[in-house]
Amino acid sequence: xxxxxxxxxxxxxxxxQREKNSLIYLPLGPLEWHGPHLPLGVDPLRAEIAxxxxxxxxxxxxxxTLFVGTERERSPEMxxxxxxxxxxxxxxxxxxxxxLPSLYFKEEVFAFLLRNYLELIVDVWKFKNIVIINGxxxxxxxxxxxxxxxxxxxxxxxxxxxxxxxxDFTLGIFHSGHATKEETETLMAYYPESIDIKKLPEKPSxxxxxxxxxxxxxxxxxxxxxxxxxxEQEDPRDSERERGREIFEKTIKQMKEVIMKEIK
Length: 264
Ligand SMILES: [Zn+2]
What we know:
Blueprint (H helix, E strand, L loop, with lengths): L10 H10 L2 E6 L13 H17 L2 E2 L13 H7 L24 H18 L4 E6 L4 H17 L3 E5 L17 H8 L20 H4 L4 H4 L20 H22 L2
Bound molecules: zinc ion.
C-alpha cells in the first residue's frame, strides 16, 4: 500500500495536503496494444510509477491512475510511413493483424471525463497545483489534455502541468517509439513479470511494423526503414532491465526539475 495514493488517505489528510502545498498528481493512459510481449497497461503503468516517485520527491499525493486514453484514425501519410497502402482505416496502434484491440475511449468521451475530473480536483477539492502524468503519445490524446490544461489555467487560479514520462530527446540518449526498446526495458525495470520477450520472434527475424504494431521513433517522424521494420537500436529484444531503470531514473529527474521550476 502506497500512502501517496489518494484512495488510501483520510479526509483530514487530503485537507492537510491542500493546505501544505496543494500538489496532486494524476497519472493516465489507455489500455493499449503494445506488441505481443508487453502488457496492455504500459502507458498508464509507466505514468503511475513516475507519479508515485515524483510525489515522493516533491511531497505530493497521487490520484488513482486513470486507465483511459484516446486515439484517432491515422493519416494516409502516416500509414504509408508505417508500411500500409494509405487508404486503410486504422485507429492508433490497432493494426489489422493484432489479436486484441486496444480499449481506446472516443476522443469526446476522454475529453469529457478529463474535464469533469479536473473540475472535481480544482473546483470541488480546491487543489491549486495539478500535475498530469500522461503515458500515451497519441496526437489527439495529447491535444485534448493540452486544450483542457490551457482552458483551466486561463479561467481559474491554478497551475496545471502536462508531462510525459519520457526522456528529453534533445539529450540524444535514446529514441522513444511504440513498444520498442525504451518502453519495454523501462517497464521491465519495475514489472519484469508482466513482460515476455519470447512472444516475439527470435533475432535476427525482422520485426515488421505491420505484423507486430511495434513502431520505432524515426518512423513516426516520417523516416521509416527501407523494409518497414523496427530499427536495430530500438529492437525490444535487446531490452535490459538495468538500463531501463537508469533511463527511468533520469526521466524522473528531468520531470522533477520541470515541476520544481513551474510549481514550487
Ligand atoms: Zn506506450
